[in-house]
Design a protein that fits this description.
Number of domains: 2
Largest sheet: 13 strands, antiparallel
Helix content: 10-25%
Distance between the termini: 28 Å
CATH topology of the largest domain: Jelly Rolls
Structural class: alpha+beta
Low-confidence stretches: 1-30, 390-400
CATH superfamily of the largest domain: q2cbj1_9rhob like domain
Number of helices: 9
CATH class of the largest domain: Mainly Beta
Strand content: 25-35%
Radius of gyration: 26 Å
Number of strands: 26
Length: about 500
């Protein structure tokens, strides 16, 4: 089962000047007062309500007037004019922007969320919206959907600004039955501003495939959908640099539904080292890292921190040939599913000749020996024995414990690429692993563009280590199965890279 997410869906602002993320804005000048608000009458009209209820429970499309109901790729509904009171909307927006916001930033999302749960906020207009959603609208929703809902309703406010996003997920968590989003974006918001709610179709394994529908935020529109095993969606990256995507979102709760056993991907195929000509190896690797004194110094630092970055790792001539081949290569395949990863993968069965040569060097027994000397790990039979070596071999599905092996990928990263953390991201029975990341073509890269590889402890969000792309560098990271990693979403700023993309050759070695 994937790690559960407990953040709300989205939010932002209107014509009101933008505030800095996480900062508290000037308090509203409007005095506390009793406020009430009603659902737009077009939704409560008896004739409209009956038609909508019938269509919903018959799984039929309904698109008449201000009611829009669709069942593909999963059941969702849009109420374009939720509240017919512009003065109320303006005051509500002011109160929402008066809230204190905290930046939320991990593998799945980057945006600002209200620190306070809206069910405890005493502001009059927020209170009126809460009463409408918790009572009147919940009753309306139960009647329309025929889904019994309990008194648990989650509701918070979110602001998405330039480059903010919430990547693909299904909202699945015990008790959640219906998700909702109420938009208070500027009236001028359009598809070029980003921030759409993207809906995914699923493949034969129940995993998200392609985005088949995008709902552009519209001021005063209310969207809801049933939370199911196939309700995969995302908040597309906000591309506007001067507009704020403000919304109130949350979930209605009810009886849990039966869910299928989650699909489990096969573990990567592990292989053993190969032999290559000695001259080929020396042609590729910077002599600095083949010097025994340098190796000893690097090993000492690595053993203290379990990670190190080796600059200018490849010989310049080979590196330039490799970079040129990757930039010209057109044989890339999009790698998914979107709730786990999104990047391009090179087919290593038929790579460009220079790329194939580089891969051979990285999986050669000479490379295994050099890595042993650089890290102190037992990756080669000629590596020095350590006090912790276990000579007993045990056969597993992925090879033999104690027999060094590896797996590798050649990846392309560009705007929109990322990987996510998942609890089943383990490599079979291998307890420890040495990750190596060889970066190519990332000149001009800046940290705020994304693309950082972050390491975290299983079940935690706090970052243990981050690895930044650096031209012709080899990053080494030693980790256990309880240390997971992800590549941060490459945002719109990454389009400023000279070639708008970079590459890495990611290898994982096992003792």
């Amino acid at each position: 089962m994937d790690r559960k997410r407990t953040v709300n869906n989205d939010v932002k602002e209107d014509a009101v000047p933008k505030s800095k993320k996480g900062k508290h804005k000037t308090k509203s000048v409007h005095p506390q007062q009793a406020v009430s608000v009603s659902l737009n009458e077009c939704y409560t009209c008896v004739s409209n309500l009956k038609k909508f209820e019938t269509s919903y429970q018959a799984a039929e499309t309904y698109d008449e007037g201000s009611l829009q109901l669709y069942h593909e790729p999963f059941t969702h509904c849009v109420l374009p004019t939720f509240i017919d009171d512009e003065k109320f909307l303006s005051r509500l927006q002011e109160e929402l922007l008066d809230l204190t916001f905290a930046e939320k930033n991990n593998d799945l999302y980057k945006f600002c969320q209200s620190r306070e749960d809206l069910k405890v906020v005493s502001s009059p207009y927020i209170g009126a919206l809460r009463d409408l959603i918790y009572v009147k609208f919940k009753d309306w929703l139960e009647k329309v959907t025929n889904i019994p809902l309990n008194d648990t309703v989650d509701m918070s406010c979110a602001k998405y600004e330039f480059t903010d996003t919430l990547l693909c997920h299904d909202d699945e968590l015990e008790g959640r039955r219906i998700a909702f989003i109420y938009y208070l974006v500027p009236s001028s918001w359009s598809d070029v501003d980003g921030g759409a709610l993207d809906l995914f179709a699923v493949n034969e394994n129940g995993q998200p495939a392609d985005v088949v529908k995008s709902v552009v935020p519209a001021r005063n529109s209310f969207l809801f959908f049933e939370v199911t095993p196939v309700s995969f969606h995302q908040v597309a990256e906000v591309l506007s640099e001067d507009k704020t995507r403000l919304s109130v979102s949350g979930w209605f709760h009810g009886p849990s539904i039966n869910r299928p056993t989650p699909f489990e991907e096969p573990h990567p195929t592990l292989a053993h080292a190969i032999s290559i000509e000695e001259d080929m190896f020396f042609d590729w690797i910077n002599p600095t890292y083949l010097d025994m004194i340098s190796q000893a110094d690097i090993r000492e630092r690595f053993e203290e921190e379990s990670q190190i970055e080796l600059q200018n790792f490849l010989q310049n001539s080979k590196y330039e040939q490799l970079k040129n081949a990757l930039q010209k290569c057109e044989s890339w395949t999009q790698r998914g599913p979107a709730n786990k990863r999104c990047y391009s993968l090179m087919d290593t069965d038929n790579p460009p000749e220079i790329v194939q040569e580089c891969i051979q060097v990285l999986k050669s027994d000479a490379m295994f020996l050099v890595l042993s000397n650089l890290t102190g790990l037992k990756l080669h039979e000629l590596a020095p024995e350590s006090d912790t070596d276990d000579s007993e071999e045990e056969t597993t599905a992925n090879g033999t414990k104690g027999e060094p092996c590896y797996c590798s990928q050649v990846r392309r990263w560009r705007h929109g690429s990322y990987t996510l953390v998942h609890d089943n991201d383990i490599e079979g029975d291998r307890e420890f692993a040495l990750d190596t990341l060889l970066y190519i073509g990332c000149e001009g890269w800046e940290p705020d563009q994304g693309g950082i590889t972050s390491y975290i402890a299983r079940g935690e969000d706090e970052e243990l280590l981050s690895v930044s792309p650096s031209e012709n560098s080899l990053a080494l990271v030693y980790r256990g199965q309880d240390t997971l990693h992800f590549v941060k979403h490459l945002n719109a700023r990454s389009r400023n890279l000279p070639n708008k993309e970079f590459y890495d050759i990611c290898c994982t070695y096992y003792e």
